[in-house]
Task: inverse folding
């Protein structure tokens, strides 16, 4: 059992919080049916308390056909029966709060499920109906309307338009089962404002906004032109009015937003973080950077520069439910991440990847701002290669079977090494198969190991909470040998990361707080390791 962490009580907790991401289907199975659920999550809240996180973000737990892992929502006010009930969600939120852990929920505003009552009514109502105005229905092109209304590229592989029996087409930037909403319609805006209030009334502390830059579309639905601004469906100016109205609601409840905003333009990215819009947005530049000192330093500098003009804190993340796990990625020849380069059978050195992932954990937790920690990263879980006949991710199928998809980072967690299914659930086989040897990563086994990844994370989060200099505030780069990142934080806190090929001397210091591994016999920092010092 880790030492207890004092609860956060300040209003600006989100500026330097450590937030744990839960993918409910794979976190913990309370009823033994092979699917993670809210009962399982409640039973494992003590793990999050021992770890020392400030908040937990749940990816969608709403009623859904689960075509895209719950991001195809059929009812935003109901919990999917596979996960439990609304009453259980309310108990979970309250129980987490009693343990000093805030809850953040995931809102998916760009699209709904094709089983959502609105879309089912729209298909039934026919062309020209008010019901269809809530979506993007259009006649097709060609002599008989047999061609899609435009040529927009998909966020997944495959087409962005699907034809219904009466001949009209509807827009979906993701799968056909996820029709895009028409955010120019006032009813769509009112509905989502009501959804926000619904969850804020139930005590959630914040909302993560899925695909936050995609909601508003060019009303003309003109053909896509590469390199021409503005993009017809990414970062349209009308988004900012939506988020200003949302911010006013959040401020009533003291709640916060984090947006999923993928934008290469730093100035336009920062617009989402103005004081009357979103509180924070995910930083994907850092996440996708390779394990190279120049690239990581540039990502850190660029991120801090993006946030500085609006005074918003940066967010740092190494992995999430869409991205190849850190241990595996950092053990590959190409240590960057790009959806376009994912492939089956990519070799990796797990020992090397684990060593680098441990160092990356200390690097990330020492940076200014908040940190998001994806479930299982604290256990050092590798990416699993899921058998082709067990893959469920639509990215795999829409690629024609060439993309392995995202299921490899969604394997159910191991809790107890000697229990059935490594303690994930007690009866049925998990919805995704756990690889051979998965039990070696179990929480109970790592809890007793002073050198484990879990122990490292627990120590790091405790120091981050109790030692001066961490969290929000300035960062100063320090002189360092080639291949080494060294920076100072307030109160003499130092972080050194050795990305070179040989051990390096540590800077002068009074105390060593934490090392990602073991120093050499003469006190030098080995390659692919990191250390926190008090200068």
Result:
């Amino acid at each position: 059992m880790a030492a207890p962490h004092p609860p956060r009580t300040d209003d600006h907790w989100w500026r330097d919080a450590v937030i744990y991401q839960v993918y409910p289907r794979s976190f913990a199975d309370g009823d033994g049916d092979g699917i993670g659920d809210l009962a399982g999550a409640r039973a494992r809240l003590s793990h999050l308390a021992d770890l020392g996180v400030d908040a937990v973000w749940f990816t969608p737990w709403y009623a859904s056909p689960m075509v895209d892992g719950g991001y195809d929502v059929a009812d935003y006010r109901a919990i999917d029966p596979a996960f439990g009930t609304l009453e259980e969600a309310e108990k979970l939120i309250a129980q987490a709060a009693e343990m000093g852990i805030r809850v953040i929920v995931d809102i998916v505003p760009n699209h709904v499920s094709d089983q959502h009552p609105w879309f089912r009514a729209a298909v039934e109502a026919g062309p020209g109906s008010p019901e269809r105005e809530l979506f993007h229905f259009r006649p097709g092109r060609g002599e008989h309307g047999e061609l899609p209304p435009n040529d927009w590229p998909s966020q997944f592989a495959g087409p962005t338009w699907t034809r219904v029996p009466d001949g009209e087409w509807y827009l979906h930037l993701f799968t056909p089962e996820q029709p895009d909403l028409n955010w120019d319609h006032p009813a769509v805006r009112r509905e989502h404002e009501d959804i926000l209030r619904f969850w804020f009334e139930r005590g959630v502390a914040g909302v993560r906004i899925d695909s936050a830059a995609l909601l508003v579309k060019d009303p003309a639905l003109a053909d896509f032109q590469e390199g021409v601004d503005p993009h017809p469906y990414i970062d349209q100016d009308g988004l900012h009015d939506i988020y200003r109205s949302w911010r006013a609601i959040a401020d009533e409840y003291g709640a916060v937003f984090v947006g999923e905003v993928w934008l290469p333009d730093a100035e336009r990215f920062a617009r989402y973080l103005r004081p009357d819009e979103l509180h924070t947005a995910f930083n994907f530049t850092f996440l996708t950077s390779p394990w190279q000192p120049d690239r990581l330093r540039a990502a850190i500098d660029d991120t801090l520069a993006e946030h500085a003009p609006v005074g918003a804190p940066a967010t740092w993340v190494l992995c999430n439910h869409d991205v190849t796990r850190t241990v595996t990625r950092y053990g590959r020849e190409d240590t960057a991440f790009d959806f376009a380069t994912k492939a089956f059978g990519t070799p990796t050195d797990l020992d090397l990847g684990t060593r680098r992932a441990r160092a990356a954990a200390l690097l990330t937790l020492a940076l200014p701002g908040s940190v998001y920690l994806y479930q299982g990263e604290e256990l050092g879980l590798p990416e699993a290669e899921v058998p082709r006949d067990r893959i469920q991710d639509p990215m795999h199928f829409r690629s024609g079977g060439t993309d392995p998809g995202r299921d490899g980072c969604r394997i159910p967690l191991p809790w107890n090494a000697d229990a059935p299914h490594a303690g994930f659930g007690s009866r049925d086989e998990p919805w995704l198969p756990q690889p051979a040897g998965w039990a070696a990563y179990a929480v109970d086994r790592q809890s007793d190991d002073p050198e484990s990844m879990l122990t490292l994370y627990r120590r790091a989060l405790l120091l981050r909470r109790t030692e001066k200099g961490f969290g929000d505030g300035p960062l100063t780069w320090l002189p360092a040998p080639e291949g080494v990142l060294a920076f100072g934080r307030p109160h003499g806190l130092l972080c050194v990361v050795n990305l070179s090929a040989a051990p390096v001397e540590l800077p002068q210091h009074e105390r060593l707080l934490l090392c990602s591994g073991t120093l050499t016999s003469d006190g030098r920092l080995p390659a692919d390791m990191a250390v926190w010092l008090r200068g």
Q: What stands out?
A: The radius of gyration is 23 Å. The chain has three domains: 18-109+186-461, 117-171, 474-534. The first helix runs from residue 24 to 27. The mean pLDDT is 95.
